[in-house]
Every structure is written in C-alpha cells, then in structure tokens.
C-alpha cells in the first residue's frame, strides 16, 4: 500500500458532484493516490446533473483509476490494505442510515465496512435534505462510533430547505489529516 492512498466514494447526491470532482483532482495532483468508488445509483443513474458514464470518465481522468462500482470490488479494500482511509463525499442520508445500522449492501457501505474491519478511518461529508430530520439520528450514531469522522457541516439553505445539511467540502483534506491522527476536526458545526 502506498502511504497516501485513499478511497473516495461518491453517493447519489448528484447536485454536489461538480463540487467534489475538482477536490478529487486537486488531491490526486497533490500526490495522493485516489481509488474512486461509486454507489449503485451514482454509477448507474443519469440525472439532470449529468450522465453516469460522464461522471465515471471524469473520475478516471482525475484519478487514473477506473471507479469501483461492485460489491466484489469494494470488499477487499480493507483486508488487502489497499488504502489508508476512505472518504465518502457526498454522503447521502440513505448511506448514513445504512452505515448507522450496519447494512452493507452497496459498494460504498461494503467498502466502509471493509475499511472499518481493518481499523481505517472513514470520513463522511454529508449532503442530505433531511439532515435535521430523519437523518439526524443516524448522524449522531455515527459521530459516536469509532473510526468515523465527519467533515464540518451547516444548513445549506435554511429558508428553502430548513432540514438540509451539507458539509464544507473544502475541509475534506483537513478532516482527513485529523482522522489519520485519530481526531475529529473541530469545530464540527459551521455556522
């Protein structure tokens, strides 16, 4: 394993893909090897925000690696020591729920389980319209679990979407550095 190899997983918060792709590119250009991983939805759904095939091509262009998009591809990440950490950005409410309740039926959730089994940090950059509603309980559960670290977040549009939360994606790198030292970056709430 290279010392600076990380798994970067994308879940189906399609509206944030344009925000995270440049960050992936910058991290890769800075010398970190990125293993891209996509949820079934991220890898398979065309939306008003773009075609799945185009997102896969852009991930490959930014990282030099084909995205992992199967359970079989995600399972060996931790046991084979393929990366030192995993970033899930964007992390949807559905993924938060599955992680909080130990459900590993997608490439992203199985990848996280695989990394946790090896004692590796999993960094969550939330992007969910129900972060202060149904997803809040799952966010709290994961905040109290070993080896999960949250990228600082805030309400992204409190007038139109009062329950919506989104991480400050620009803090993913800083959160990763803290997580690799076993610390949660602070402050967690960006007001």
| Distance between the first and last residues' Cα | 38 Å
Strand content: 15-25%
Number of helices, counting only DSSP H or I runs of 4 residues or more: 8
> Which class of secondary structure composition applies to the elements?
alpha/beta
- Counting DSSP E segments of at least 2 residues, the number of strands comes to 7
The shape, in one word, is: globular
Share of residues in helices: 25-40%
Largest sheet: 7 strands, mixed
- Poorly predicted spans: none
Integer-rounded radius of gyration = 15 Å
Could you state the order of secondary-structure elements as H and E? EHEHHHEHHEHEEEH
Look at the structure and give the mean pLDDT. 94
List the helices and strands and how they pair.
Elements: E1 5-10, H1 17-29, E2 33-38, H2 40-44, H3 52-63, H4 71-74, E3 85-91, H5 93-100, H6 107-117, E4 122-128, H7 136-143, E5 148-150, E6 153-155, E7 165-167, H8 172-180
Parallel strand pairs: 1-2, 1-3, 3-4, 4-5
Antiparallel strand pairs: 4-7, 6-7
Task: Write structural notes for this entry.
This protein has 191 residues and is α/β, with parallel strands linked by helices. It contains 8 helices and 7 strands. The protein has helices at residues 17-29, 40-44, 52-63, 71-74, 93-100, 107-117, 136-143, 172-180; strands at residues 5-10, 33-38, 85-91, 122-128, 148-150, 153-155, 165-167. Strands 1, 2, 3, 4, 5, 6 and 7 form a 7-stranded mixed sheet that branches. The longest helix has 13 residues, at 17-29. The protein is globular, with a radius of gyration of 15 Å.
